[in-house]
C-alpha cells in the first residue's frame, strides 16, 4: 500500500531519479520551459516550486547555497536568485504551469510542457 507516500518512483533507482529531476529543474530554470512526460512533469513541478521559494530568501548568499543543493549549474543558481525569484516575491507558490502537449513518438507516452508562470517585473 502507498499510504502517505507523496512522490512517484518513476521506475528508477533513487539516485537516478533525483539526478534526473535535478537536471530537469536546471533546464527549466535555464530555458524557461521544458517538454517531458506527464509523470515527470508533475514531480518536476514540486521541485521547481521549492527551488524558487528557496531563491526568494532575503540573504542572497544563503539563497544561492540552498538553490545549489538542487540546481546543477552555478550560473543557473545565480539566475534563479537574481532574476527569477524576485519576479514572484508577492506570490505564494504556483510558479509553474503544466500544459498537456502530445504523445511521444515511439512509445506513445503522454508529454507535457512545464513552463514558468509570468511573474511581475520588478521596477527598481
Which strand order does the major sheet show?
1-3-2
Mean pLDDT: 93
Q: What is the end-to-end distance?
A: 52 Å
CATH architecture group name: Alpha-Beta Complex
**Unreliable residue stretches:** none
Subunit structure: Part of the 50S ribosomal subunit. Contacts protein L32.
GO molecular function, one term: structural constituent of ribosome
Pfam family, one: Ribosomal_L17
Protein name: Large ribosomal subunit protein bL17
Can you tell me about this structure?
Strand 2 (96-103) and strand 3 (110-116) form a beta hairpin. The chain has helices spanning 14-31, 38-55, 60-68, 74-87; strands at 33-37, 96-103, 110-116. Helix 1 (14-31) crosses helix 2 (38-55), helix 2 crosses helix 4 (74-87) and helix 3 (60-68) crosses helix 4 (74-87). Helices cover 48% and strands 16% of the residues. Strands 1-3-2 form a three-stranded antiparallel β-sheet. The protein is globular and about 45 Å long. It has four helices and three strands; from the N terminus they run H-E-H-H-H-E-E. With 124 residues, the protein is an alpha+beta fold. The model has no long low-confidence stretch (mean pLDDT 93). It has one domain (16-116): Alpha-Beta Complex (50s Ribosomal Protein L17, Chain: A), CATH 3.90.1030.10. GO terms for molecular function: structural constituent of ribosome. This is Large ribosomal subunit protein bL17. Part of the 50S ribosomal subunit. Contacts protein L32. Belongs to the bacterial ribosomal protein bL17 family.
